[in-house]
Specification:
The protein has 512 residues and is mainly alpha-helical. It is built from 20 helices and 14 strands. The protein has a three-stranded antiparallel beta sheet. A hairpin with a 3-residue loop joins strand 5 and strand 6. Helix 1 packs across helix 11, helix 13 crosses helix 14 and helix 17 crosses helix 19. 37% of the residues are buried. It binds one RNA strand of 75 nucleotides through strand 6, strand 11, strand 14, helix 12 and helix 18.
Length: 512
RNA sequence: GCCGCGUUGGUCAAGAGGUUAAGACGCCUCCCUUUCACGGAGGAAUCACGGGUUCGAGUCCCGUACGUGGUACCA
């Protein structure tokens, strides 16, 4: 039987499919998801595509892919409808109008026939230094073309003629509109300072304001998380709830703090400028062809991406910083979400990834690293060999892409040798050491680490050279540079033949 | 301009009237390692400012400054 008694907690992530999914967006989904899972609730993905002029092909699929990569699976979505569909607002178009009309009947909204030009004119005429952006509000609405200012006959005539109109909310005068936000607590607004927002557009589509309220009601949303950029329009939503469905049915709001870039608001430009990704995954705008790099392709592990995002605006109150999704679900609490915006720090982001690479098993890393080498056309030999290599170098990799540089030399002789690192201290004695070493290594019966090391060290003693002075040249010969795991380990792994080849070829390079 | 929200080291942050103001990233020094990392030990660095309230304020109140969001038939 279904052991989970379905909780009444229902949350939704409601993106507009207009482009890439940036950090802030993913964090909003994350907090939604964590909250839902924590309370055994339902996580819904609703596509807010009411602005047909901003439709971008592929953006919706892109969102699914990002969520999937992040390990976030919606319980209900356009692709997996539950009982409150459709899950795309464009497909719910017919549902909104009646609510807008109901408001008109109750005197809480009105028809407005103003054209774009009328609005522009109103704004330019009322614009002053003290009021650079005049609002369509109580002070001016009686001077406009709407059902409040016009006589009933004219209004009826316009409607019959099919003159285009929008429906605007009629903001009440002298009211304090307040609500209790889960993060900001009591927030209040003066109704006089809020304008008569458009609810239903001329094309019959609702604006965001009407659509969120209606959909949240119809979809039985219990808790609504969104970015803080929405806080200013909250009074419109509160009023709509009051007029249409009752404040007692309104979801609990939580306005999440913004994620900022190095200089204020985080933009995709910041990414290009400072060399860090801003989107979850690579995104190319189909119209402008503008490309924006994603965390995935940059070499981030989804676990790390989720982890770092979770910590940007929340912490568990302990010193723990590394959290898996399961741990986040267990520990997350909305009370511990911060009020203030957090500046994104790429250095810290990389640290999270580094930690997660170290935490990951070679088993888990294998497909990712293998894929990396395939794109570079490197033959990675057997799976076991490859996995040994991964285990050896993973603590040296911050991004998945680092695995290339950190381990190509296990598969191919290095293209270039940092000969300058050995030349200054090179001499006849060392030259002869390596020549003899090759002969001795060739004779070695078993090619294991200890044998190689003993052979190397005994010969060094014989030649009265400190082994340490020879290890660096040896490393350069095998690896090409001053990095990587223990030299004898490397020699052992790449095999006798390859080791000898590399030493010999390096010898000629050093002497030229 | 107006309205909303915010303000603890460079960054993320703990802190809910009495603390030597945690911890992490980054930076620096040292140890380990004759490579690079990992690991370990240290170090520099903070309560935006001004007034209150209080025996006592990073914590409460009020201003100011600064930041940020909104001010669209975009979300």
């Amino acid at each position: 039987m279904n052991e989970n008694k379905e909780s009444n907690i229902r949350v939704r992530f409601a993106p507009s499919p207009t482009g890439g999914l940036h950090l802030g967006g993913v964090r909003t989904v994350l907090y939604n998801y964590l909250f839902a899972k924590k309370h055994n609730g339902t996580f819904i993905l609703r596509i807010e595509d009411t602005d047909q002029s901003r439709f971008v092909a592929g953006a919706e699929d892109y969102i699914y892919n990002c969520l999937k990569w992040c390990g976030i699976e919606p319980d209900e979505s356009p692709e997996k409808p539950g009982s409150y569909g459709p899950y795309r607002q464009s497909e719910r178009k017919a549902m909104y109008r009646k609510y807008a009309e109901q408001l008109i009947e109750n005197g809480q909204a009105y028809y407005a026939f103003d054209t774009t030009e009328d609005l522009e004119k109103m704004r330019s005429e009322n614009k002053t230094e003290d009021n650079p952006s005049p609002q369509y509000d109580a002070r001016i609405r009686m001077k406009m073309q709407n059902s409040l200012a016009l006589t009933n006959e004219v209004v009826q005539q316009y409607l019959q003629e099919g003159k285009p109109y929008v429906i605007r909310i009629k903001m009440p005068e002298n009211e304090i509109i307040s609500f209790n936000d889960m993060i900001h607590h009591e927030v209040s607004f003066e109704s006089n300072l809020v304008d008569d927002k458009v609810l239903l557009k001329a094309d019959g589509m609702p604006t965001y304001h009407l659509a969120v309220v209606v959909d949240d009601y119809l979809m039985k949303i219990s808790h609504a998380f969104r970015g803080e950029e929405w806080l200013s329009s909250a009074p419109v939503h509160i009023l709509l709830w009051k007029y249409l469905f009752g404040l007692e049915n309104m979801p609990q709001w939580a306005h999440l703090p913004l994620i900022l870039g190095p200089n204020g608001k985080l933009s995709k430009r910041d990414g290009a400028k400072y060399g860090f990704p801003v989107y979850a995954m690579n995104w190319t705008d189909p119209r402008s062809e503008e490309f924006t790099e994603g965390f995935k392709e940059k070499g981030f592990l989804p676990e790390a991406f989720i982890n770092l995002l979770a910590m940007l605006g929340w912490n568990g109150g302990t010193e723990q910083e590394l959290f898996s999704m399961e741990e986040l679900i267990a520990e997350f609490s909305i009370e511990r979400v911060h009020k203030s915006g957090a500046k994104f720090d790429y250095e810290k982001a990389k640290w999270f990834n580094h930690e997660w690479i170290k935490k990951s098993t070679t088993e888990a890393l294998y497909p990712l690293v293998k894929n990396l080498f395939e794109t570079k056309n490197v033959n990675t030999q057997t799976e076991n060999y490859f996995k040994t290599v991964i285990g050896l170098v993973k603590e040296r990799c911050t991004l998945i892409s680092d695995f290339y540089e950190q381990s190509v030399y296990f598969f191919e002789a290095p293209q270039t040798l940092d000969v300058e690192a050995v030349r200054p201290k090179w001499n006849e004695n060392k030259q002869s050491f390596f020549e003899i070493l090759c002969n001795q290594l060739a004779e070695l019966k078993s090619w294991d680490v200890i044998e190689i090391e003993n052979c190397f060290k005994n010969l060094a003693t014989e030649k009265s050279i400190k082994p340490g002075e020879l290890q660096l040249p040896m490393r350069i010969m095998l690896v090409g540079g001053k990095f990587g795991p223990a030299v004898f380990e490397i020699a052992h792994l790449i095999g006798k033949e390859e080791t000898l080849n590399r030493i010999q070829s390096a010898l000629t390079k050093i002497n030229n």
